[in-house]
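Much of the work behind modern protein science is quiet bookkeeping, done one molecule at a time. The fold becomes a row of whole numbers, each drawn from a learned catalogue of backbone shapes. The protein below has been through that process, and both of its lines are reproduced in full.
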Amino acid sequence: MSWQPLRVAIIDDHEIVRNGLKHILADDPDFLVVGEAADGPSGVAMVDAVRPDVVIVDVRLPSMQGDDVCRLIRERVPETRILILSAFGEDELVYRCVLAGAQGYVLKDIVHFDLKKTLKMIARGEAVLDPRVASVVVERLRNRKAITDIPLSPHQLSVLRLIAQGLSNREIADRLFLSENTVKGYVQEVLRRLGARNRLEAVMIANERGWLR
């Protein structure tokens, strides 16, 4: 079988970060950057189109949280491995990304050699946790009470987060690649499970309980 470079895609809303990552990989024949995107929805669509071996995903993206992006990628392109790019102070969100299917995460100040080594490890199916923040995530994984106490499925929680951003059912459907009827069903079930009379009350309940962080 002929040798092929590792095909990498990047989802990050900062152009300077995307350019920096591409620069690190540009002169190495072991890697080929096959796509990039600046937000979650276009990123998911890009990954679905180019089917990379590994996609680097910023933990915080405009219009869609990183864990929702991970979940959609895992559903649409399960063979693609996900590497989360994070900064300090985002342990909760990184933890949710790991639960949503990310194989690892690194911090944004990663050096060139570490990035390449990490991408190869992720492509082989290994899990990679940056040691500077791994202990927090590992501890959360040992005690999942905060997550399991939420009476919503991952999809329902994704819908609730977009409701909190003021999106309509149609806009949520477009964002999550679902039908409008499916989103309507999710919204109704969210209201029922939270005992909320309307969308605003559901958002208020979720905010009070810290589910939208």
